[in-house]
Amino acid sequence: MVPFFFGSRQRRLFGIYEPAAGRGGGARAALLCNSWGKEYFNGHRAMRLLAKRLCATGFDTLRFDYFGAGDSGGEASEADLDGWRHDIVSAARELKHMSAAPRVVLVGLRLGATLVAETAPRLHEDIDGVILWDPIVRGLDYVEELAEQGGQKARLSEFKSDMADDMELEGLSVSPAFVSGLKAIDLCSEKLGLQARRLTIFTCKPPSDCQLLNSEGRTSEVLVLKTASPWKDATERTETLPIEVYERIVEWLR
Q: In terms of Cα–Cα distance, which of 237, 224, 182, 137 is closest to 37?
């Protein structure tokens, strides 16, 4: 396991690279993209163990923190989703370089899955598939849920994208641009253009009216599993680890 920093001097990103336990064929690599806020902390162990599973099956892996989050440079108030999409591109190319894999698989949890779906078209030639684990499908619903949980619903009703002041969300001081980015998420949009081979896993009820995420074919598979949702608070979880999710991901990648 190799902790290190990468990216530019102005945008230093912290990552943990783990080489595969063994390589039966050519190099393969998977980039793991976390969620943020409480979901980042709740899901951290599950993503760490997923990385170990993937390493055991022949994948080099890279986990990293977005700019303004975790151990990467910047403050939470400097974060924005366009920047985090750029961070995924940087991390994917860093992993390609370190592993010598010709292409990488992108794996995202919650907001990480959403950003992977939005970023994958940019990496067209560099990726070998995407795995979306409980993606946030509609940002407006997500922000309202977070604001209600944090007692910020009244504040959110006054929100305007050109506001000068940061606001608190998930216990963090975030910029109006960050909130606007969250609210603009729409994975059901026909403009998304996600053509990559993909596996989408829901451990919660999936949206019923989203044609893209519910479609199946040669290049996509959608699973609804009754198993743990590790990104939730401990009081809402019924199991400690999503073993079935790990098994389905490994099986899909074989």
A: 182
